[in-house]
Amino acid sequence: MQIGVMIGPERGSTARKVTRMLDDIAWAEAAGLPTAWIPQIPSDMDALLTVALLGLRTERIELGTAVVPLQAQHPVALARQALSAHAITGGRLTLGVGPSHHWIVGDMLGLPYDKPAAYTRDYLEVLTAALHGPAPVDVENATFTIHNPLDLDPVAPLQILVAALGPVMLKLAGERADGTVLWMADERAIGQHVAPKITKAAEHAGRPQPRIVAGLPVCLCLPSQVDEARERANRILGEAEISPNYQRLLDYGDAKDIGDLCAVGDESAIAARFTSFANAGATDLSVRLLPVGTTREDLIASKHRTREVLAAISRDLGTPQ
Known about the structure:
Shape: globular
Structural class: alpha/beta
Strand content: 15-25%
Number of helices: 12
Largest sheet: 10 strands, parallel
Distance between the termini: 12 Å
């Protein structure tokens, strides 16, 4: 199992976000982590542009988006962005995409959110054709009628991962993509729901073993701070739980909220939790560092301690690149 780290804009001024992400990717590259996962937050910086920026400051590390919402842009436009970022990074992009949620697509963007699985299937048909150029993109399906020249080709194989929570989307991800990117999925949800369904679909489609990337908040802390860490996770990350999609995914597992999902405690407790995710079928972890403390200095120190332990566990359990 590969252990990667989530690198996002967080809070603060736009200029500070760029500086902080550059510092974080420099650490991840130097620490030997195999992958950095870049989230696409509705109110924040563009994930693929961030990938391109981070790629110019690194040489080795895989850079994945987790995930780009499909409805926000035309599939040919997304293909151009992805192929451009892939070339800029020297072939290190992994493109994570997904149909997002009704409260983003409908409430925020004012776009239809009807039949997201069918929309994703039609979108992937166009996107996959566009990512296998250079050649004209000629696709006609229920959603798109595309006849578009495209002179870009992938400089290296480019994986597509699809955010998939329910049975229909997992089947689609297994049949049409290289795996899935998850959030709010614990070990039981992965082992009994996600991994069997997506793997069966991939096998039936004649595709390789799919990647299963599990997003996981992680905090190195004392036993006396475990409750504090779980409460902080619920406070700053719990807004996603309002989504019916995430609620249904939680129902497949043992966790009741994001606080339950956290890997918290000392190094041995965190390593044991990572091992349980690997045993459940996760091929990758996307670790969301979760510092604890009462001051900015405390939070920074907590973040640095957690990521050093993360690097050590990655060397022991992960797959070096």
